[in-house]
C-alpha cells in the first residue's frame, strides 16, 4: 500500500555491533546512511570467515544499488515493480535482490566461499517524509516501540518460526530448539529470496530497532521493550542491549540499530 503522509520527519540513528561471548569472528554488519535514509543490519553465515564476506558483499551492493536506483528513478516504473508498493519500497527490494546476486557471484568465483549467505533487515526513510519502509530476508528483525508497547514488525524466515505458526512448537520451545538458527530464506541461496515489505507511518515518540538474532535469541521481547522504554541516548540504549545479551550468554554476534524520528519542524 502506498502511504500518503504530510508530516515531515528526520531520523536520529545510532548502531553498534559486538562479537559476543562465544564467536571468534563478527560476521554482522550494520549501516547508517543518513544522507540516503538507509539503515541496515546483516547477519552473515558460512563459517571460515565466509559469513563475514557474505554480509559485507551484500551490504555494499544493497547500498550501491539503492543509491543508483534512487538517482536514476523516472516517471516510468519497470514492469516487474509491484504497483501496490511505493517507488522507495520497489527500489530497496531490487537492491536486496541485487545483493543476493552479488553474493552468489562471489561464491561461483571462489570455491572457498561455497555455502555462505546472509540475512538482512533494512529500513528506508524517504528523505523528510512521514513514513518508513522495512524489508527483510531471514531472521534479523525490526521492532517498533510506540506508546509504551513493543511490536515486532517482521516475521522470521526460519524453520522454528514456521513450526510455531503451524502450532507444532511453542514460542518458549522455539527459543531453545536445536534448529532455531536454521533460516528458510537468505541472500546467497539457490533461488532469489522472498523479500517481505512493510510500509508504515511514523508517529511522534516512536523508537525503532533493527537487530540480528544475536540480540533476540538472548533477550525476550519483554526484556528488549524494557531497555527501549527506559530511554536515554541512543548510544546508551545500544550499549545496554548488547551488554545484557552478553550477560545472558552472548552465544552469537550482536548488532543493533536504533532509529528515533523527529518532526522536521521541531528540530
Outline the structure in words.
The chain has seven helices and ten strands. It is α+β, with helices and mostly antiparallel strands and 267 residues long. The chain has a single domain, classed as Phosphatase 2c, domain 1 (4-Layer Sandwich), CATH 3.60.40. β6 and β7 form a beta hairpin. α1 runs antiparallel to α2. The relative contact order is 0.21.
Key descriptive features of the protein:
267 residues; alpha+beta; Phosphatase 2c, domain 1; five-stranded antiparallel beta sheet; 7 helices; 10 strands; disordered N terminus
Structural class: alpha+beta
**What Rg is obtained from the alpha carbons, in whole angstroms?**
18 Å
What is the C-level CATH assignment? Alpha Beta
Instruction: Return the string of H and E elements.
Output: EEEHHEEEEHHEEHHHE
Unreliable segments of 5+ consecutive residues: 1-5
Major sheet: arrangement of strands:
1-10-9-6-7
User: Quaternary state, please?
Assistant: single chain
What portion of residues is helical? 25-40%
For the biggest sheet, the summary is: 5 strands, antiparallel
CATH superfamily (homologous) name: PPM-type phosphatase domain
Number of domains: 1
Amino acid at each position: 500500500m502506498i502511504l500518503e503522509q504530510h508530516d515531515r520527519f528526520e531520523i536520529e540513528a545510532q548502531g553498534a555491533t559486538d562479537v559476543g561471548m562465544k564467536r571468534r569472528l563478527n560476521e554482522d554488519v550494520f549501516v547508517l546512511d543518513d544522507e540516503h535514509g538507509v539503515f541496515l543490519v546483516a547477519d552473515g553465515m558460512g563459517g571460515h570467515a565466509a559469513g563475514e564476506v557474505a554480509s559485507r558483499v551484500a551490504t555494499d551492493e544493497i547500498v550501491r544499488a539503492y543509491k543508483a536506483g534512487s538517482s536514476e528513478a523516472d516517471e516510468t516504473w519497470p514492469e516487474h515493480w509491484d504497483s501496490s508498493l511505493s517507488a522507495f519500497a520497489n527500489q530497496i527490494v531490487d537492491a536486496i535482490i541485487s545483493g543476493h546476486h552479488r553474493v552468489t557471484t562471489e561464491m561461483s568465483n571462489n570455491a572457498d566461499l561455497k555455502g555462505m549467505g546472509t540475512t538482512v533487515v533494512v529500513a528506508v526513510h524517504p528523505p523528510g517524509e512521514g513514513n518508513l519502509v522495512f524489508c527483510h530476508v531471514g531472521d534479523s528483525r525490526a521492532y517498533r516501540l510506540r506508546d509504551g508497547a513493543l511490536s515486532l514488525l517482521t516475521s522470521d524466515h526460519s524453520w522454528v518460526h514456521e513450526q510455531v505458526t503451524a502450532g507444532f512448537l511453542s514460542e518458549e520451545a522455539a527459543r531453545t530448539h536445536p534448529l532455531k538458527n536454521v533460516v528458510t530464506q537468505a541472500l546467497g541461496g539457490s533461488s532469489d529470496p522472498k523479500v517481505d515489505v512493510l510500509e508504515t507511518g511514523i508517529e511522534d515518540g516512536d523508537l525503532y530497532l533493527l537487530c540480528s538474532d544475536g540480540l533476540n535469541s538472548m533477550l525476550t521481547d519483554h526484556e528488549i521493550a524494557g531497555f527501549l522504554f527506559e530511554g536515554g541516548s541512543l548510544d546508551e540504549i545500544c550499549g545496554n542491549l548488547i551488554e545484557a545479551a552478553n550477560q545472558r550468554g552472548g552465544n552469537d554476534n550482536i548488532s543493533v540499530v536504533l532509529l528515533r524520528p523527529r518532526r522536521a519542524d521541531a528540530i
